[in-house]
Write a structure and sequence with these properties.
The complex is a heterotrimer of chains A (121), B (155) and C (732).
Chain A lengths: L3 E5 L3 H13 L3 E5 L2 H11 L3 E4 L8 H11 L7 E5 L4 H10 L3 E4 L4 H11 L2
Parallel strand pairs in A: 1-2, 1-3, 3-4, 4-5
Helix pairs in contact in A: 2-3
Chain B lengths: L12 E8 L2 E6 L3 E6 L13 E7 L2 E7 H4 L12 E7 L2 E7 L1 E8 L4 E3 L12 E7 L2 E6 L1 H4 L9
Parallel strand pairs in B: 2-11, 5-7
Antiparallel strand pairs in B: 1-2, 1-8, 3-6, 4-5, 6-7, 9-10, 10-11
Chain C lengths: L2 H29 L3 H21 L2 H19 L6 H22 L8 H10 L12 H5 L15 H6 L4 E9 L1 H5 L4 H11 E8 L17 E8 L3 H7 L7 E8 L11 H7 L15 H8 L2 H11 L6 H14 L13 H27 L7 H24 E3 L1 H18 L3 E6 L4 E3 H22 L3 H6 L6 E10 L2 E8 L6 H10 L11 H5 L23 H10 L3 E7 L3 E9 L4 E9 L2 E6 L3 E6 L5 E4 L3 E6 L2 E7 H4 L13 E6 L5 E6 L1 E9 L13 E6 L5 E5 L1 H6 L5 H10 L1
Parallel strand pairs in C: 6-8, 13-22, 17-19
Antiparallel strand pairs in C: 1-3, 1-4, 2-3, 5-7, 8-9, 9-11, 10-11, 12-13, 12-20, 14-18, 15-16, 16-17, 18-19, 21-22
Helix pairs in contact in C: 1-2, 1-4, 2-3, 3-4, 3-5, 4-5, 11-12, 15-16, 17-18, 18-22
Classes of the chains: A alpha/beta (121), B mainly beta (155), C alpha+beta (732).
């Protein structure tokens, strides 16, 4: 069975790029368009790894991660944060929110796949 | 159908020939969309006398042009005996009201001539070329030039 | 989905984001900044930057980056907004849009460095300099892990790995490490790629089963490793758990790793197989204990696989409602994206359905089924259903005018730049909806009218101040529904129309006679006359060739009408009325002079049957009917359209009082009214041309074509007779 990755990003373009890259690497991909949608999809699809953006409407990445860690049944799922912001405070914030790891955009497919494989159970 | 005696060349141009009054005319087959029988047209107000009206062509409004009137040969009285040749000119489709369709011709370059300056009754601007075959003289109609002109809008 | 498809998605998304950006900044400009709008605007630029980076559009990335930083300043402190900064941001929007377009068309984008510099200066961005790529991450190059090929059980391979240096790694994860989705096994996996490992688990902290809490971290590991890499590489493996564990890396001197610990084979082999907590505390030796003791950690991580289904719904439920209560999240209404071709096709099919239905009704009538027969009743049901579906389908294509209005925002900025005038756009009713077909047709005429308003209407700032007006002019764009149509108004607070100049120009151009007596209103509307343009300097903006006559024609070809009214010194008002859709129409079917004609129901005010004595004759030949407390001129439709000679019988017949917009009312006299039905509008212009007095055509149930009348035109062109016009104006 294929390993499943949930990608959470409000940008259509980004969702498609991620799907393209990850599917080519042999993963099954589920997408969500903001944190709230992400929570829903998490429950429905039970992914092995989650990749999320930070800046999103409705519920941003930080809140999404915090919610997953605090309330969700699958609160130990590895969550990678994918973002263009490499400011140290943002990384700190992500880590304290409960992110497992971090990838800076623009990513190249190799970097992305490697990071995913690092945390894939 | 071809007359066996006609000299035709492979690789010539194809035309549909038809009758209006006493004369034969033709148009390039590539402009022709279909040929249909006559049906009652709805008159359009304030339109030139050569526009008979419009008919319903499978959901599209098709203007019908009385070719005889357009060519200055007098207005026709449209009836079931007439035939409508649907042609496309640039992005518009119109129907030409003619008496009957006579032929589909495959014409080589030797039979195609420029229009002579003989007939002043009919505006020669309306013709492209002339086909000369045996005893037949068939004027090719320049579809672009017979299209109704855009009228100046009344204020 | 190919990379080219994703590129298309990117540019489509850019268009959406630009729209968000424009709207958001506009709101901030008129209503002041609020955190949600600022966030939305920030995200728009952020998204564009993100996507641009993925495709390597460097010019776009670098400008978007500066723009984003400027917006971030505001995001962090809303008081940082002021008028000049808003202007700068709006200019940046235009430039960003241009760069996107350049990247999209693979042309060289214009140089944005000047504007970028301005943004940096105005928003003091050097203090906000972003640290590019944190050291650890930038340098980090994780080793590729191919789990399939990874096989530790082969001890021969283990022996083959060249042993360079030896390190002793002590790794004690905190509980938080597990909470963040980490699993010690994965770190060992990574390390194993770099060398040979010998792992020992220290279980001193492990309590008895009764006291064991799965969330707590009790275990520590010691890993002795032979590797060619150095300690930095090893540390890099743990970079994501910095602070979540106690980690020491010590280089040992040359000794081979201590074999006293658990064999990594067994360790890995046993892990994850037996998540049952019951195994903890078994009497097995070291390996068993270590294996099963390590089980809680992967068990916790493996929970989704093993007992994910159906368990803990209560918990999850609680978690969910807690999350929901925590924040009243304003979720925008669900939308889907559909290609417009699909919608167009649906609408065309609906149109055919309406026509076919009419044909069916005809046949049923002809077949002799009475109105109360089951067949007829079933037909009525069908018609109701179809009507509903059709409304629904039309509603899909109905869009708010807002995007078109927002475009005008940029147009105004451009004209202001070109002419040195200052003007602001005010919007009202921008959510009013109208069919896509009409919206598309609106863009050009609106653009010209807005340009006109700023270029010719609004005075330059000094002149305005001299008049006691604020130096910045206002152009108000509003939309609302009225009797089945949409009305769009453009109102400016400029100088109004210079009537003397307009009249003079019109006389010069032969549009009116020198001695003609025209009302103020008529003079104002002369600007719509063909060939008219009063621009003294042909500004690049509106003087060049595109006159208001073209604007009027475009609006008329949409089935609309446009008017101007002016208040000299105070401003002008353009008023446009358009049908809500170009697709269907509620029509009254009438018979006149042997023709079947259609009038828009929305234009008909009243109908009545004529009785002898209702009709009065004024002057020579002008008949009026007394209705609605007015004398309304009778319009002989058949004659006006050229279908019949002048009607002789005015004593009998049916009157339809029709509204002719600004031209007042007319009483159309027709032979009979056949009924009312929804008709599909078919354009005459697609294959023919515009016919005066005729708006369009439709195909009736019997397959016949019926012409749809242009009531405005008919009413206003009733006759050239001054007497008749006098009567007309009385009736209006």
């Amino acid at each position: 069975m294929l390993k499943k990755i949930l990608t959470v990003d409000d940008s259509r373009t980004m969702r498609e790029m991620l799907r393209h890259t990850l599917a080519s690497a042999g993963f099954e991909v589920v997408t969500a368009e903001d944190g709230a949608d992400g929570i829903q999809k998490l429950r429905e699809s039970q992914p092995d790894v989650v990749i999320t953006d930070i800046n999103m409407p409705v519920m941003d990445g930080f809140e999404f991660i915090e919610n997953v860690r605090k309330h969700e049944e699958y609160n130990r799922v590895p969550i990678l944060v994918l973002t263009t912001e490499s400011a140290p405070e943002k990384k700190q914030r992500a880590q304290s929110a409960g992110a497992t790891g971090w990838i800076v955009k623009p990513f190249d497919p190799e970097k992305l796949t490697r990071a995913v494989n690092r945390v894939m159970p | 159908m071809h007359d066996e005696n006609e000299q035709t060349n492979v690789g010539g141009e194809e035309f549909i020939a038809f009758r209006v009054g006493e004369q034969e005319f033709c148009v390039e087959i590539t402009s022709t969309r279909e040929i249909r029988g006559w049906s009652q047209a709805t008159r359009l107000p304030h339109s030139p006398d050569y526009i008979v009206g419009v008919i319903n062509l499978r959901g599209t409004i098709l203007p019908i042009m009385d070719l005889s009137a357009r060519l200055g040969m007098g207005s026709s009285t449209p009836s079931e005996r007439h035939v409508i040749i649907v042609v496309q000119v640039r992005d518009k489709t119109i129907g030409l009201l003619v008496d009957s369709v006579s032929d589909i011709l495959d014409v080589g370059p030797d039979h195609l001539r420029p229009v002579p300056e003989v007939n002043h009754e009919m505006s020669t601007e309306m013709f492209n070329r002339v086909i000369v075959m045996d005893k037949r003289i068939i004027c090719e109609i320049c579809l672009e030039s017979i299209m109704p002109e855009q009228e100046m809008q009344a204020a | 989905m190919s990379l080219d498809d994703i590129k298309e998605t990117f540019f489509a998304e850019c268009a959406d984001q630009m729209s968000e950006l424009e709207t958001g900044l506009h709101e901030i400009q008129s209503d002041g900044p609020d955190i949600d709008t600022v966030n939305a605007v920030f995200r728009a630029v952020h998204s564009i930057k993100g996507g641009a980076g993925a495709f390597g559009y460097n010019a776009l990335v670098s400008f978007a980056h500066v723009f984003e930083n400027a917006l971030d300043v505001i995001r962090n402190d809303l008081s940082q907004v002021n008028e000049d900064r808003m202007d700068l941001l709006l200019r940046s929007v235009d430039v960003l849009s241009d760069v996107i377009e350049a990247e999209r068309t693979s042309t060289e984008p214009a140089d944005t460095s000047a504007l970028a510099k301005e943004l940096e200066t105005v928003f003091d961005l050097s203090a906000h300099a972003e640290e590019e790529d944190d050291e650890a991450l930038a340098d980090f190059a994780p080793v590729t892990i191919d789990l399939e090929a990874f096989d530790l059980s082969d001890s021969e391979d283990a022996a083959d790995i060249p042993s360079g240096r030896t390190f002793r790694i002590s790794f004690a994860p905190h509980a938080s490490l597990y909470l963040k989705g980490h699993d010690p096994l994965r770190f060992f996996r990574e390390l194993a790629e770099m060398g040979t490992l010998s792992v020992t688990c220290e279980l001193d902290n492990l309590p008895k089963l009764n006291d064991l809490t799965p969330d707590e971290s009790y275990m520590k590991w010691q890993v002795d490793m032979e590797t060619d890499n150095d300690s930095d590489d090893i540390a890099a493996v743990f970079d994501w758990v910095d602070g979540e564990c106690d980690l020491t890396i010590e280089e040992l001197g040359g000794d081979s790793p201590d074999g006293g610990g658990v064999d990594l084979d067994d360790f890995l082999a046993n892990l994850g197989e037996d998540p049952e907590l019951a195994d903890i505390g078994s009497e097995d030796g070291g390996s068993g204990e270590a294996a099963s003791a390590a089980a809680p950690a992967p068990a916790a991580a493996a929970a989704p696989d093993d007992d994910g289904s159906g368990s803990d719904d209560g918990d999850a439920g609680q978690g969910a409602s807690a999350a929901k209560e925590k924040k009243e999240v304003k979720k925008p209404s669900q939308t889907i994206r559909v290609e417009s071709e699909k919608v167009d096709r649906l609408i065309n099919l609906m149109g055919e359905l309406v026509i076919n239905q009419a044909m069916l009704a005809e046949r049923i009538g002809q077949a002799g089924f009475g109105n109360a027969s089951p067949a007829a009743l079933a037909l009525v049901e069908l018609q109701n259903l179809t009507r509903e579906i059709q409304s629904g389908v039309m509603a899909i294509r109905a869009q708010p005018v807002k995007p078109v209005f927002m475009r005008m925002s940029r147009i105004i900025r451009e004209v202001c730049n070109a002419t040195g005038k200052k003007a602001m756009l005010e919007l009202e009713g921008e959510h009013t909806e109208v069919d896509t077909t009409v919206i598309e047709g609106l863009i050009d005429p609106l653009t010209h009218m807005i340009r006109n308003a700023v270029d010719h209407g609004i005075e330059d700032p000094e002149a305005r101040q001299a008049k006691g007006k604020p130096p910045q002019g206002t152009v108000k764009l509003s939309a609302y529904h009225s009797s089945g149509r949409i009305v769009i108004e453009i109102k400016d607070d400029g100088a109004g129309i210079n009537r003397e100049r307009v009249l003079e120009k019109a006389i010069e151009k032969g549009i009116v006679a020198r001695d003609a007596k025209l009302s103020d209103d008529e003079i104002d509307n002369l600007i719509f006359a063909p060939g008219f343009s009063t621009a003294e300097t042909i500004t690049d903006v509106s003087g060049r060739g595109v006159g208001m006559d073209v604007v009027r024609q475009s609006i008329q070809s949409l089935g609309g009408r446009v008017n101007i009214s002016s208040d000299p010194g105070n401003g002008s008002l353009f008023s446009m009325s358009l049908p809500l859709t170009l697709a269907v129409l509620d029509g009254m079917i009438v018979k006149e002079a042997g023709q079947t004609l259609v009038l828009p129901v929305s234009a008909v005010l009243e109908t009545a049957t004529l009785k002898p004595g209702d009709v009065y004759t004024i002057g020579n030949n002008n008949r009026v009917v007394k209705m609605r407390n007015a004398l309304i001129p009778i319009i002989d439709v058949g004659r006006q359209l050229g279908f019949a000679e002048q009607r002789t019988d005015f004593a009998n017949g049916t009157i339809m009082v029709v509204e002719g917009g600004k031209n007042g009312m007319g009483a159309f006299i027709v032979d009979s009214i056949e009924g009312q039905q929804q008709v599909v509008i078919k354009s005459l212009e697609s294959n023919y041309q515009r016919v005066p007095s005729i708006a369009a055509a439709t195909i009736l149930g019997n397959g016949q074509i019926a012409l749809i009348l242009d009531c405005d035109h008919i009413v206003s062109h009733n006759s050239g007779d001054p007497e008749a016009e006098f009567i007309q104006s009385m009736a209006g």
